[in-house]
Design a protein that fits this description.
By secondary structure, the chain is an alpha/beta fold. Helices cover 44% and strands 16% of the residues.
Length: 153
Amino acid sequence: MTVIYIDADACPVKSETLRVADRHKLQVYIVSNGGMRPNPHPLVEIVVVDAGADEADIWIADRVGQGDICITGDIPLAAKCLENGGRALRHNGDAFTQQNIGNQLAMRDLMNDMRAADPFHQGRGKLFSKADRSRFLDALEREVRAAQKDKNG
């Protein structure tokens, strides 16, 4: 059975993910290092990991496998999920794929270098819109169907 893992820190689409998971009766792990409210839904498990920058990512990467989906904005975590045969989806609905993950990792490193070189010039991310939310719902539905095919071989 396909499992959905949510890298929950700063994830704006938890409720949307739960709607899709409920429709397909999929287990969901909401993983963070604290501050999560309990969720009474029987398919949801809240996982609180030790404090630390990458503890939630490590927990997810150690478990995600063929036919599973990870919701994350973290590019290195997405790369690990893909390596393990899973799928990864950004909060705006953009899919991480084998074809685009290398470029995304390289761009992340470049942007980190640029920020380090000029700490006073910090760009701001764009606001999360209703259109992003809608795109995410459509993309997650497609990913769930594809992941179930992956899982069933």
